[in-house]
Design brief:
Distance between the termini: 38 Å
Order of helices and strands: HHEHEHEEEEEEEHEEHHEEHHEH
Helix content: 25-40%
Number of strands: 14
Shape: globular
Strand order of the largest sheet: 1-9-8-7-4-2-3
Strand content: 5-15%
Number of helices: 10
Largest sheet: 7 strands, mixed
Length: 405
């Protein structure tokens, strides 16, 4: 508290500022889009450390793995016939596991509108080298034509483009009578957006996004249709051990009962259990959704009055409520040379970090110049609300610096 008082004193309005600094500060400056803010009130003391130093295959270790699976299923309201397992290498590992294990029997439609979706395109085209692949791409801020997807094909897409702040609006575009599988990278969407389970055959995510957990492990969710594909399809390429979900043509169902493919970090597992308990305490999935919606509502209200910023998403229904991306539209800024336009958000981020107002909000390196504010459930809505006037102050400060240069 003493440190906060000192910091507060240091940001009192100064007549030499571009204009007076706001008086209200976010309680937490952590707005990173990954790893993301820990849950409110988090402390390492909250973690049960009895399992540390024990085997993950011990009775106690396996029970902790089963607990994280069971709590995840419950919070997500997962259908009884869907499977959920902990797998290696974060969301990236979970996506790769699905691509390498399941693709091949059908053509594939790849949807990409930001960096991570583009990575999956590269893997399918250049690593798996599949012959029948359609790539449907869109620029940052836009979605591909969802109506052009062929559901006789397998379909691979991100639900929320983490680096673009653009999401699919719903699952209505996904055919109920599809022949192919839908493989959805949902890492920055799950626990923050409503997912239609009947439309999704494979879903992947990681704990370090909306739950604010630690990295290293991913989650893969399989529908009965996905299990059928696994048991009926043998990939034409060698399969690394960490990708294998079948043995002798049958699903290795222990993966979905806490028997992990490789050794997990039990500390990371305990942190995930802590986050899930917090989620249960605020009302489960609906409580998580409510917080992210409020964060989005505060940003929308601010954008409606802003004369220098708009959402990167070109339509409101596709704007993310987790990785909330904005771009600068002030005619003065757009008249600057490209390198100075790119420097603007970087400088805004530097100023806000120096003030300990907002950490890690510069846009993704491959995205158009802008800011990216994480609005997932672990971020207090009051902190988003407090941050927004500081964005105006920082922009005005940077504008004055450049004009005086």
């Amino acid at each position: 508290m003493a440190q906060n008082a000192t910091v507060n004193a240091s940001v009192t309005a100064n007549s030499n500022d571009a204009f007076a600094k706001p008086n209200l500060r976010p309680e937490s400056p952590n707005f990173s889009s990954g790893p993301c803010k820990k849950r409110p009130g988090w402390s390492a003391d909250a973690l049960d450390t009895r399992v540390l130093g024990r085997s993950h295959r011990s009775k106690f270790g396996k029970a902790r793995m089963e607990e994280v699976i069971d709590r995840s299923r419950a919070v997500l309201n997962l259908p009884d016939d869907y499977l959920l397992g902990v797998v290696p290498a974060s969301d990236t590992g979970a996506v790769e596991m699905a691509l390498w294990s399941m693709l091949g029997p059908r053509g594939v439609d790849m949807l990409a509108w930001e960096s991570f979706g583009s990575l999956w395109v590269t893997d399918v085209l250049k690593q798996l080298n599949l012959p029948d692949v359609r790539v449907m791409e869109a620029d940052y801020g836009k979605l591909p034509d969802l109506g052009a997807v062929d559901f006789d094909h397998d379909v691979v897409f991100t639900w929320n483009g983490t680096t673009a702040g653009v999401r699919v609006p719903n699952g209505d575009w996904i055919a109920d009578d599809r022949k192919g599988l839908t493989i959805c990278d949902a890492t920055s969407a799950i626990f923050a957006m409503e997912l239609p389970w009947d439309k999704l055959d494979v879903v992947t995510y990681s704990w370090q996004k909306v739950l604010g957990g630690e990295g290293g492990h991913g989650i893969i969710i399989l529908s009965p249709r996905a299990v059928e594909r696994l048991e009926s399809h043998t990939p034409a390429w060698p399969m690394p051990k960490i990708f294998r979900m079948t043995k002798g043509g049958k699903l290795i169902d222990g993966i979905f009962r806490g028997e992990t493919i490789n050794t997990p970090s039990m500390l990371v597992v305990e942190d995930a259990i802590d986050a899930l308990k917090w989620a249960e305490g605020i009302g489960g999935l609906e409580g998580l959704l409510k917080r992210t919606r409020q964060n989005r509502a505060y940003l929308d209200a601010w954008l409606a009055d802003s004369d220098w910023a708009v959402d990167l998403a070109d339509t409101p229904e596709t704007a993310s409520n987790t990785s909330m991306c904005i771009k600068i539209i002030d005619p003065w800024a757009l008249s600057l040379p490209a390198e100075k336009q790119a420097a603007l958000p970087k400088r805004i981020s530097q100023i806000l970090e120096a003030e300990e107002i907002a950490m890690d909000i510069n846009g993704y390196r491959d995205a158009p110049p802008g800011l990216r504010i994480w609005g997932g459930a672990t971020v207090e809505p009051s902190d988003v609300k407090a941050l927004l006037p500081w964005l105006d102050w920082a922009y005005a400060t940077v504008k004055a610096e450049i004009q005086a240069d």
